[in-house]
Structure prediction request, 460 residues.
Amino acid sequence: MTFICRFAPSPTGPLHIGGVRTALFNWLLAKKNKGKFFLRIEDTDKERSKDEFKNQIISSLGWLGVKHDDKEYIQSKNINKHVEVANELVKKGFAYYCYCTEKDLEEQKTQAKRKSLPFVYNRKCRDLKEKKDSPAVLRFKSKISGSSLIKDLVQGEMNVSNLTIEDFVILRKDKTPTYQLSATVDDHEMKITHVIRGDDHKINTFKQKQIYDAMGWKIPEFAHIPLIHSESGKKLSKRDKASTIDDYIKIGILSDALRNYLLRLGWAHKDKEIFTLDESIKLFDLKGVGRSPSKLDMSRILSINEHYIKHIDEKELFKLLKIYCKKFKKNIDSSKENILLKSMNFLKNKAKTLEDIFQNAQYILQDNIQVSPEDAKLLDASSKKIIKDFLDEFEKLSKTNKETLEKIVNDLLSKYKTNFKGVGQPLRIALTGSKYGPGLYDILLSLDKDEIVKRLKMIK
RNA sequence: GGUCCCAUCGUCUAACGGUUAGGACAGAUGGUUUUCAAUCAUCUAAUCGGGGUUCGAUUCCCCGUGGGACCGCCA
Prediction:
């Protein structure tokens, strides 16, 4: 059996992390089964659909490595077909025109509320014999007796009484198709075999199933995955903080790390936490998807990111840093590239994100060291004397390496009868502008000799 | 209000009906260290409540409670 999966977002806002995970799961299932993964842009809401969001969706998924097969499908291009199907449904007696106004519907709703009935359209126009001239929407004639059963790959058997499914609109007053129709027709046309989507779509499945049945089409397999909740415990929305991919890119999260985090959100494989791309394709399955919603946890994202920062190839990491700086900070000067690359091995040890690395590398990137007033206080007379002594010896050095540097420092330790901090701190402040930073020898060995001399001479 | 779904440490989760209920993140403590980190070791911490079924229930069933989703001419 071939697997054809899809992800079908609407370009009405930036794609958030929940959608990204849905896309990832679809993609994984397709890859695992050597099938296809399509991206379909559901832009039938002309008012709210924006090209800008379409591009954001495509680039977000691309960044994560979730690449779709073929060119993306644009739903609005297939509208004629959707309408055609709508007309066929009318012909077959599965759809009818409804002339109720918004006011009517409003009224019906308050009535229903009062009587504790479901807020569904009351099917007032369902059995209207003659056609009127006034504007109408086309509604699907839902079943009103019995119940419907859908076997869901994650939820198990879902059973719903048909009476609770309303006669939903499939064609708007302006004759344009709605989601229920378009999505169903497109899924059928694209020969989608598996639909993984958020469980907020569960009721839609029952509506769509009726269209499939009415048209005599084969219904795909469905898997409704639980939603991702924000810290507040509610369905994640585009308005939540740190909800889009861009939010994570901006703070320097690696795509592998985010992919890994998302994979483990709602899915597990034994005790395994870290999955390479290949492993996730091989190991992913719908059986491992749970049925309860999960919360976003920033500290966990950071922790996984830290893991990837420490484990990927340093050249690769440097490349990512360069891209990151160019986009969000400032271009790394080519004269600094070598020294930065050489320093990745220790810079990365103190970093959870690319932004952290950037911060830790400030002493390399900045030519003029600014000592904060607070740290400047630590540079008292004796500290300055130590710096001066160090400088004298350092300038005499013919060969700069860990041993020769250590000798200077050790001599100072005994001369001033102090501990390492007594020597290390003033030097670190003079060289980096901060009392926090990389190990002293890492700093000393990463900077050019002239630069070190220059910086130390600044301290008077 | 109606319909549906969910419930294991704070969080993500593991556990053929039989485990001292496991792992990871976070947190705490200690060791190491050159500051901040990192690292190593140790610790704290959970089966929502009540009934069944069963020799035995985190697991199956019912009720309650709590949380969530949906109820658009949005998708």
Q: What stands out?
A: The two ends of chain A are 77 Å apart (CA to CA). The longest strand of chain A covers residues 36-41.
